[in-house]
Design a protein that fits this description.
By secondary structure, this protein is an alpha+beta fold. The protein has helices spanning about 30-40, 75-90, 110-115, 120-130, 135-140, 155-165, 170-175, 190-195, 220-235, 270-290, 295-300, 305-320, 325-330, 340-355, 365-370, 375-385, 390-405; strands spanning about 10-20, 45-50, 50-55, 60-65, 95-100, 145-150, 180, 185, 250-255, 260-265, 325, 340. Strand 3 and strand 4 form a beta hairpin. Keywords: Ligase.
Length: about 425
């Protein structure tokens, strides 16, 4: 965003998808060929197609789609993304490929199958690889939806950052879509975030504890987060290639160059209607927090990073079943005499805040599945039903590819089943 925009006046959405072999579903590193075909020129790194732009990512089997300019509303974006997915699949078909959703590939071996993007911007990817070794699940096998929200000045930055910090710990309760890696259940509903949270361990200041520190002005953010990060990476980055805001790997990062905060913690869902429905719930909840509907700005600012990180670590394992402390639930207007599952908070938030959104009818079906039935991770486990042999996993993820192509939610028929949320 080139000029600072006020809170909730515009939205930047980015969604990453895997490119896989149409028959085997193995990763297919042809993003460069796909972008070249779409742009009709070699070595293209991005292609603007009206409302949506395609671009490369760190690895050559991932395609990113994003809004070409900040959108005034989230409504209508699901259809725009779906149209572009169909176009990408049509270009991939002669290459034997298709797009796959979810936040991670279920049987990719990143140690042997990783191919970094080889063209423009490759110096940055090579610098990341040299510093952190990108041949692992936390780098080479993870896809997410990023939500970029604007702010104008320190007051709006502080309020938005406080609200995002408060909500981040339970975002995986809805967004988790990565229970399977290396062909087996990992024990985490959001294994993508479990691996991601450790991918910068060589330089701890780059990641922190995923939940950002309690800083509420630009100067404090530069002093407490960016400066230590740049200092600590310097010995591993002698040319200074990584000396930029994009080095920050927290679950939400400030992008002062464009006056936005980018939320990076949400796994890609099964179709754009589900992704945008998820974005709608998250944004409407953040609006409620910024407006102090259930808790004050001062209460939100006072939240301990340690306590928030503890809830987050439980949520990436258990998703909606995560039991949160009573005092945390009260931040969202949820009161009960004992600890409360995260799923209850999200239901209340959806019911109380979505009616004020510019609601998109495309969200109705995925919301019914996501909020009332379960996270995609539990639906995947229900579909596999304990059979982690390759054919069963391949069948389930083939169905997920079909959901992406048709822009329909993945309904495993588990309403009321033990997989519930």
């Amino acid at each position: 965003m080139s000029r600072a925009k006020p809170l909730f006046s515009a939205y930047g959405i980015e969604i990453e998808y895997m490119i896989v072999d149409r028959e085997t579903l193995a990763v297919l590193p042809v993003a460069d060929k796909l972008l070249a075909a779409a742009a009709k020129k070699e070595n293209a790194s991005d292609v603007e197609r009206g409302e949506i732009t395609w671009s490369n990512e760190l690895v050559n089997h991932v395609l990113e789609m994003k809004v070409s300019k900040p959108a005034k509303s989230l409504s209508g974006l699901a259809a725009a993304f779906a149209e572009n997915i169909a176009a990408a699949d049509a270009l991939l078909a002669p290459m034997g490929g298709r797009l796959m959703p979810t936040g991670a590939h279920p049987f990719m071996d990143p140690h042997t199958e990783t191919q970094l993007w080889p063209h423009a911007y490759s110096d940055v990817y090579q610098a990341f690889d040299a510093a952190f070794n990108c041949k692992g699940h936390g780098w080479a096998n993870l896809q997410s939806m990023h939500i970029n929200l604007p702010f104008r000045g320190d007051e709006e930055f502080g309020r938005l950052h406080a609200a995002i910090r408060a909500l981040l710990p339970i975002m995986p309760a809805l967004a988790a879509s990565t229970p399977i890696l290396d062909g087996h259940f990992t024990g985490f509903l959001d294994a993508r975030m479990e691996h991601y949270s450790k991918n910068a361990a060589r330089v701890p200041s780059v990641m922190g504890v995923v939940i950002p520190e309690p800083v509420f002005s630009e100067q404090e953010y530069r002093d407490r987060i960016l400066a230590p990060m740049y200092r600590d990476i310097a010995p591993l980055d002698p040319k200074g290639v990584l000396h930029d805001e994009f080095l920050n790997a927290r679950g939400a990062i400030a992008r002062f160059k464009r006056s936005t905060i980018e939320i990076r913690i949400l796994d890609t869902q099964e179709c754009p209607a589900a992704d945008l429905a998820l974005a709608g719930v998250v944004v409407s909840a953040l609006k409620g927090l910024v407006e102090e509907r259930w808790s004050s700005y001062e209460e939100q600012k006072a939240l301990s990073t340690h306590d928030l990180a503890a809830i987050f670590n439980q949520t990436i394992a258990n998703a909606g079943r995560t039991v949160v402390p009573e005092e945390y639930a009260r931040l969202f207007g949820v009161y009960a005499p004992s600890s409360i599952p995260a799923r209850v908070i999200w239901r209340r938030l959806a019911l109380n805040t979505l009616p004020a959104m510019d609601f998109d009818p495309d969200w109705e079906k995925p919301l019914a599945v996501l909020v009332d039935q379960s996270s995609l991770a539990r639906r995947i486990l229900a579909a596999v039903d304990g059979d982690y042999r390759h054919p069963a996993i391949k069948r389930t993820y083939g169905e997920l590819c079909d959901c992406l192509a048709a822009n329909t939610p993945f309904n495993a028929g588990i309403l009321g089943a033990p997989y519930f949320l």
